[in-house]
Amino acid sequence: MDVPFSWSASRHDTFASCRRRYYYSYYAAREDDEIKRLKKLSALPLWAGSVVHDTIEWFLKKHDSLPPPKEQDALIRRVVHTGMASDWRESEMGSLRFRLFEHEYDEPVEQEDKRIAVNTVMRSLRGFFRSDTLREALTVGRDRWLALEDLVSFHVDDVEVFLRMDLAFRDADGRAVIVDWKTGRRQGRFNEIQVAGYALYATERGWVSSPEEIATELNYLAIPRATRRSVTQKGIDHARSFIRKSAGSMKALLVDPIENVARLEDFPMVDRPRICRRCNFRKLCFPRAGDARPSKEAAAGAGEEDAAGGLEEPS
Question: Is residue 118 within 8 Å of 111, Cβ to Cβ?
Answer without folding.
Answer: no
